[in-house]
Design goal:
The chain is an alpha/beta fold and 360 residues long. Helices cover 39% and strands 12% of the residues. It has helices at residues 2-9, 24-29, 40-56, 73-79, 83-90, 106-118, 132-141, 164-171, 173-182, 250-265, 276-287, 304-307, 311-316, 332-341, 347-350, and strands at residues 95-101, 125-129, 146-148, 186-190, 194-196, 210-214, 239-246, 293-295, 323-325. Helix 4 (73-79) packs across helix 7 (132-141). It is found in: Golgi apparatus membrane.
Amino acid sequence: MAQQKFLHQRPIQNPFTNPFSSSPLSTSSISNRPISLLSRNGLLLLLALLVILGVFLPWAGSPLFPSPNKLSPSQSKWRDYSLPQAVKFVAKNGTVIVCAVSYPYLPFLNNWLISVSRQKHQDQVLVIAEDYATLYKVNEKWPGHAVLIPPALDSQTAHKFGSQGFFNFTARRPQHLLEILELGYNVMYNDVDMVWLQDPFQYLEGKHDAYFMDDMTAIKPLDHSHDLPPPGKKGRTYICSCMIFLRPTSGAKLLMKKWIEELETQPWSRAKKANDQPGFNWALNKTVNQVDMYLLSQAAFPTGGLYFKNKTWVKETKGKHAIIHNNYIVGFEKKIKRFRDFNLWLVDDHASESPLGKLE
């Protein structure tokens, strides 16, 4: 009777108890019993392994997610390449030309590089790669001309205008430029949805701290003032942050620090999908009495809203255009089509003129 009472009070074991639990069944019975692939547990385990392999295996060799243990010697070298090393390598006459690029922008980088090469300035170009795929691709084709400043960003979301990824991508710009100024170099920044038609350095007159271009479409006289324009309806100017030239002066450094400060106080949110340009304009407005500023010629540096929209003005200013910016339009395909319509999409027929050659 005692034995029957004991059996009655003993809890009944579930034969399908979690094998990773701490129950007696998992630590004794199952540990000593091999799992057959044809059993229920075996099939579940096999299915789990297939799911894991199906999710992660395709990324194993992806350039977007390189494994540090599987890097080639050259990739390992570029992963540790520092900004001071890169700037020293590319700078000519104390000047470096900088762009910031994520993987989806590589075709635009190549197009821009062709136009820069035609003006004999490609050797001064430093690509700040925002992801490892860009870092490895550029340095594979053009060793030493790309550097990544950690942390790396998500290359697949950083390019969507108005997104938080895009803000994170562009908001790093003033810090990159400030670090180069602190190293003692002049720096020209360009967005890569631009095309050079002339050498822009000939328009950098004088020895000012900072040079920039207007983003307004209203036509100015050819002899317009080079002072910072007056604020607009929103209380700030409308200067483009797409093309900037800075000298390593205290004024230029102050401007970059103020820009960083403005971006920190006006972060991205769903309600206010900010980008870097308003912060740059606030920084200009707040330091105008402390920084020696120079507004570049509108004819030489027209905004896309003027160059691609006003045929009469383009004809009247023919021969004066230095850098064309393909803004005032959103979307990769739309930008490419517009460039093609104006014979400015150079990669179709002139990829060999780029240091990167034809991208696969």
